[in-house]
Design goal:
The protein is an alpha/beta fold. The chain has eight helices and ten strands. It has a ten-stranded mixed β-sheet with strand order 3-2-1-4-5-10-9-6-7-8, sandwiched between helices. α3 packs parallel to α4. The longest helix is centred in the N-terminal third of the chain and has 26 residues. It is elongated, with a radius of gyration of 20 Å.
Length: about 290
């Protein structure tokens, strides 16, 4: 994965400003190009007298896009690129743009529902999380209201397997490019977790440490490892300290299509319970070498 070109999906509302604030933060820290995109419904294509209405509709869409970008420029500045795409679905429009451009990641805000500080998966996120060819960064609701000064740590939600091994390798490169520490957490979740023997938990911690050491072998970077326990994902994630500028990294489901984002049930639960932004990686062939450059 590279961080050379960040795409922010923008709407002129609080959701759009949350995602844009994070996209600007990431692009500046990685010294990357930033493109701000708004996806609008397709203009009407009415024949005959209906073309008058079509012209009015096109003028309205252009006016809305201009007003939205005026707001975005106050955050992203003139150095960013601003483009408009037309599609019946905003997520599908961003997927199409990601497929036809050189962007490395797509950043969006939370869906309209959900509580402050959490991520709600709306229709835009759903479309991106099933089809995006590049990683998707999801921003919690209200993120722009208390924006950190920089990304200050990456945490990989780790589950042993080829997909997560690849995710750890990617995270090592991202952490190096952003000059931030890296942490790996393993979740032990279940209503009957008290019955799990301490030896089993010890073995799990040892295995996670061994897996991580193998993933970062030969790299001069210290990596913290934690096992988080709880009766569900929410309580497990609450068992640790989260830095203000932290990003959580998730691997795509190993059963999903290659080179695309695709999530399983556990990953969706982590996203909904996450107290920080979540970067969802595309699924890569195990053993493939992914590079990151600034």
């Amino acid at each position: 994965m590279k961080i050379e070109h960040v795409l922010a999906g923008f709407l002129p509302d609080s959701r759009g400003h949350d995602g844009l604030a994070l996209a600007v933060l990431l692009a500046r820290q990685a010294e990357a190009k930033l493109t701000v995109a708004t996806v609008q419904p397709p203009p009407w294509a009415s024949p005959g007298p209906g073309r008058a209405d079509e012209s009015a509709w096109r003028a309205y869409l252009k006016e809305q896009a201009t007003a939205g970008f005026d707001q975005a420029r106050q955050v992203a500045g003139e150095q960013a690129d601003y483009i408009t795409r037309f599609n019946r679905g905003s997520g599908r429009g961003l997927v199409e743009l990601a497929r036809t451009s050189d962007v490395d990641s797509v950043v969006i805000g939370s869906g309209p529902r959900g509580s402050k500080g959490r991520i709600s998966l709306g229709s835009t996120a759903d479309q991106l999380l099933h089809a995006s060819p590049v990683p998707v960064l999801l921003t919690p609701k209200g993120y722009a209201e208390d924006l950190p000064s920089r990304v200050d740590r990456l945490t990989v939600a780790y589950r042993r397997g080829p997909g997560c091994d690849s995710a750890v390798s990617v995270a090592v490169g991202v952490a190096a490019a952003l000059d931030v520490p890296l942490r790996l957490v393993t979740l032990v979740v279940g209503a009957n977790r008290a019955r799990i023997e301490q030896q089993m938990l010890g073995n799990l911690r040892e295995q996670a440490t061994a897996d991580l050491e193998r993933a970062v072998e030969g790299r001069r970077r210290e990596v913290e490892v934690e096992t988080l326990e709880g009766r569900n994902v929410t309580t497990a994630l609450a068992e640790t300290e989260w830095r203000k500028g932290e990003l959580i990294i998730l691997a795509s489901s190993e059963s999903g299509p290659l080179r695309r984002v695709f999530l399983g049930d556990t990953s969706i639960k982590i996203i909904r319970a996450a107290p920080r932004p979540v970067l969802v990686l595309t699924r890569e062939p195990f053993g493939s070498r992914q590079t990151l450059t600034k």
